[in-house]
Amino acid sequence: MPLNPNSSFTPLIVAFCCNWCSYAGADLAGTSRLNYPAQIKIIKVPCSCRIDPMFVLRAFQKGADGVILCGCHPGDCHYSTGNYYARRRITLFFSMLEYLGIEKERTHLEWVSAAEGNKFASTMRKFTEQIHALGKNERLEDIR
Amino acid sequence: MIQKQMQERAKQMLSLGEVTCVLGWKKGDFSTNPQPAVFESEKDLEDLVYDKYCAANLSKYLVELTKKEGKVLVFLKPCDTYSFNQLLKENLIKKERSYIIGIGCEGNMQVDDDMQEIGLLEKCQTCTKTAHMVFDELIGEELTVRQGDDPFEGVLNLEQMSSDERYGFWREELSKCIRCNACRNVCPACNCRKCVFDNNKYDTAQKVNASSFEEQMFHIIRAYHVAGRCTDCGECSRVCPQLIDLHLLNRKFIKDINEFYGEFQAGADTDTPSPLTDFNIDTDPEPGSVHKRG
Ligand code: SF4
Ligand code: SF4
Ligand code: FES
C-alpha cells in the first residue's frame, strides 16, 4: 500500500455501499483479486437514499476517520430515483459539515456501478490516502 | 388601535358562534412578555394583547387545536402565515378548522433577562416577509412596511472564514447549548411525534449534551431535519436562552438550496414541492463540485 511507512496511523474508514451497484462493485473487486485497503469497513444499504446523515455522524462518533458513500450512477438506481434524492441530501449535508469547519476531505461520494470493480478499488485506495494525509479525525469525535 | 379592533372582531365572531375559540396573546408576568393563549369567552378576550412584544408565532399551536372539533380564530403576522402554509402543506393542520385574521406587524422587540427591551429581534431586522401569504381577513396590514437587512450576511461572513476559524466559531457557539430543547419545541417545522433526539438508542436522547460531538450532532441534525421546510420564522433563535444564533445554521441550508436548486421560500405556497422531496436530473450539482470555499 502506498501509505507513509513512517507513520503509525491507520485510518479507519467506513464505506456505505448500495446493494445493487456499489456493493456488487466491491464484490467484483474482491473476486478480481484487486487490492484495496483492509481498514475500509463496508456497510451495505438497500439504496444510496437509505443513507441518513445521522449514519455518517454516528460513524465519525464511533471513531471513523473518513466516511465514503457509494451508490449507482445517476440514472441507474435500482429504484429509479433513489440516488437523485440522495444526491440533494448529501450535497446539502456535506456543505453543512464544511460550514461547521469539518474538513471536507473526510467525506466523499462516488457513483460506482456493479461492473466497476476497478473503480471501486482505486477510489478506496485514493480515499484512504487522502484520509491518511489528513490524519486522525478530531473535529467530529466523541471524547468518551 | 389595532388591539381594540382585534378584541372587538374576536368577540363578535365568538358570540355569533362562527368560531369556538380564539388563539392570540395575553399579558404575561411583565408588560414585555406576553404569552400565547387560547380564549374561550368574550370575558377572557379582555386580556388579549397585541403589541411589539407579541413575537411568538402562533401557527404551531394549531396542530393540536385543529385536531378538535370546532373552529379556531387565529391571529397571524405576515411571517407566521408562511409557517401556517408549511404546516398545511404537510397535512398537520386543517384549514377548514381555522379562521385567519392577518394582522400588521411593525417588528418585535427582544427583551433581556431583566425583561428590559434591548432592540429589534434579529428575525425582524432581517425580515423580508411583508405580506400575508394566507388569510381570511386583514386588520391593520398597512402597518407592515419594512426593508430588512440582508438575511444571508451572517452566513456569507462565515463562509469567507477559513475552515479552522469556522470550526472555532462553532465550537464556541455550540458549547453554550444547554440542550433545553426550546429551539426544537418552538419550531413549527419540528413536528415529529417522536423525535430522533428522544430515541434512547442514540446518545443524544432528551438530555444535556455530554460531549462536543453531541453538541454538533444535535445542531446539525436539527437544522438538517428542517432543511427545505424552515420558513426562517426566526423562532428558534428568539427562544434560545443561550442566545445562540441558530438562524446561521438554518439559513446556510436555505442559501445552499437557493444556489443549487433555484430560489425557494418555504411556506410561500402549499403546492411547490420541497427541495428535498424533489430533484432535477440534469442540473443538480454533485456533492463534490459545490465545495468551493474555505
Ligand atoms: S428552524 Fe427556526 S426559523 Fe426555521 S421554521 Fe423552525 S423555528 Fe422557524
Ligand atoms: S434553545 Fe438554545 S440552549 Fe436550548 S437546545 Fe436550542 S440551542 Fe441549545
Ligand atoms: S439502488 Fe443503488 S443508488 Fe439506489
Topology summary:
The complex is a heterodimer of chains A (144) and B (294).
Chain A: E1 13-18, H1 22-31, E2 40-45, H2 53-61, E3 66-71, H3 82-99, E4 107-111, H4 117-134
Parallel strand pairs in A: 1-2, 1-3, 3-4
Helix pairs in contact in A: 1-4
Chain B: H1 2-15, E1 21-26, E2 35-39, H2 61-65, E3 72-76, H3 78-89, E4 98-103, E5 109-111, E6 117-120, H4 122-125, E7 137-139, H5 153-159, H6 163-174, H7 182-186, H8 212-225, H9 235-239, H10 247-261
Parallel strand pairs in B: 1-3, 3-4, 4-7
Antiparallel strand pairs in B: 1-2, 5-6
Q: Which structural class should the secondary elements of chain A be placed in?
A: alpha/beta
Work out the radius of gyration of chain A: 15 Å
| Total helical elements of chain B | 10
Q: How many E-type strands of chain B?
A: 7
**Quaternary structure classification:** heterodimer
Assign a percent range to the helix content of chain B. 25-40%
* Large-scale geometry of chain A: globular
Number of strands of chain A: 4
User: pLDDT average of chain B, as an integer?
Assistant: 92
Explain what this protein looks like in three dimensions.
The complex is a heterodimer of chains A (144) and B (294). Chain A has helices at 22-31, 53-61, 82-99, 117-134; strands at 13-18, 40-45, 66-71, 107-111. Chain A has 144 residues and is of the alpha/beta class. In chain A, strands 2-1-3-4 form a four-stranded parallel β-sheet, sandwiched between helices. The termini of chain B are far apart. The chains are: A alpha/beta (144), B alpha/beta (294). The structure holds iron/sulfur cluster (2 copies) and FE2/S2 (inorganic) cluster.
